[in-house]
Amino acid sequence: MIKSLCEVESEETVQRGYRTKAKDEIMSYILSNKHRRVSASEIYEHIKNSGKHTNLTTVYRNLDKLTEAGVILKIKNSSDDYSVYQLLDPDGGCDEHLHIQCRGCGHVYHLEGEAMDKINACLLEECGYSIICSDSFLLGYCSSCRKDKDLPEKH
């Protein structure tokens, strides 16, 4: 079950006796970028540019804790082990559908409802597979980026 940010913070406050400013800054940045994936280095640069002091190790440690708590999703690129992070749906629905990310702008669309039902039915009927949606992302270009890059509908 996915925990809310408040539950995670309450548990850690009890366990450690304090909350860190770094975690507050990290969560603030993730929340303000909730519709796209962000990297640890991007978060670190944001904190540094805002005049606050932290280090990259602290950012990674907090991202790992937030991932373990089910607040954010860690997506690892299989070709280079580079990881990015995204806020999870607090209602827990992200394990029940696929995500589509635009390679141009980074926007993430949640594929739900009838479209997801059709994909599940097709894959089960045609291939005999059922989908495990956690950690599943499709890549493409949104209509705006396709126009900007003059890309065809089908790539």
TrEMBL record:
Its cofactor is Zn(2+). The lineage of its organism: Bacteria, Bacillati, Bacillota, Clostridia, Lachnospirales. Keywords: Cytoplasm, DNA-binding, Metal-binding, Repressor, Transcription, Transcription regulation, Zinc. This is Ferric uptake regulation protein. It is found in: Cytoplasm. InterPro entries: FUR, Fur_C, WH-like_DNA-bd_sf, WH_DNA-bd_sf. Zn(2+) binds at C102, C105, C142, C145. GO terms for cellular component: cytosol. SUPFAM superfamilies: Winged helix' DNA-binding domain. Belongs to the Fur family. It comes from the Bacteria. Binds 1 zinc ion per subunit. One of its GO terms (molecular function) is DNA-binding transcription factor activity. GO terms for biological process: negative regulation of DNA-templated transcription; regulation of secondary metabolite biosynthetic process. It comes from Johnsonella ignava ATCC 51276.
